Amino acid sequence: MALIASKAYGFLTTLGRIGVKVGRAAHNFLYTAQVARMISTLSRLSDNQLAQIGISRSDIPKYAETLMATDQKASDSAKD
After folding, report:
1. Residue 23 to residue 16: CA distance in whole angstroms
2. What is the CA radius of gyration of the chain?
C-alpha cells in the first residue's frame, strides 16, 4: 500500500511540475502577445499623437513594456 501511495505522490508531483511549466509558458506567451499588440497599436499613431503622450517612435517598444509592467503590478495588487 505504501508503494502505491509513494508512486501516486511521485506522479502527482511530476504532474504538478509540468502544470507549473505549462502555466509559465502560457503566461509568457500571452505577455509577449500583449506587448506585440501594444507596439502595433502605438505604431499606428502619428508622430503628432505620439508626441501628445510624450513619446517618440523610437520609444514605442520600451513604452509598451513599461505599460505592460505597470498593468501587471496593478493586476497583482488587485489580487491581494
Report:
1. 10
2. 21
pTM metric for this prediction: 0.65
SS (H, E, C) the chain: CHHHHHHHHHHHHHHHHHHHHHHHHHHHHHHHHHHHHHHHHHHCCCHHHHHHCCCCHHHHHHHHHHHHHHHHHHHHHHHC
Distance of CA 7 to the CA centre of its chain: 34
Segment 15-61, tens digit of pLDDT: 778 877 888 888 889 989 999 999 999 999 999 999 999 999 999 99
Q: With the CA atoms of 72, 73, 78 and 80 taken in that order, what torsion angle do they form, in degrees rounded to the nearest 10?
A: 120
Q: Which cell is 44 given?
A: 499606428
